[in-house]
Amino acid sequence: MKYKVSLNGKDYLVEVERGEAHMLDITDTPVVVAVSNPTIITASDAIESTTPLSSAASASADTSVAESISEGVKVISPMPGAVIEVSVEIGDQVQKNQKLCVIEAMKMENEIVAPEAGTVNQILVETGSKVETSQVLIVLI
Hints:
Blueprint: E1 2-7, E2 10-15, E3 22-25, E4 30-36, E5 39-42, E6 49-52, H1 63-68, E7 73-76, E8 81-86, E9 93-94, E10 99-105, E11 108-113, E12 118-123, E13 130-131, E14 136-140
Antiparallel strand pairs: 1-2, 3-4, 4-5, 5-6, 7-14, 8-10, 8-13, 9-12, 10-11, 12-14
């Protein structure tokens, strides 16, 4: 499926195949993305960044969840799976690349690390939680 993506005021035509995670090369730097019509949610470095697509389809948003998530750096799940470890607590100071939690997907353990230094403001999952691609796990400030 082809999409028109706007990035920094410039339009790009990208082709995306169906699946859970994809590699896109838009600016000579490949990024891992999750596709959710009509938005591409960048999951590179587990920092949430959305880019609207030019599509006639409209998505319904769950605003109750969005309203309960505070401002800050939203650390998102790059894949569906189960949280098997939460390594931080609210108020913890974390460094860039510090392990925040571990998600098991397809019998593989995937460490989710802090994309930048900050303070843990919210933890939206616990050990045993099932998570989906692009779900916010932790918020840093």
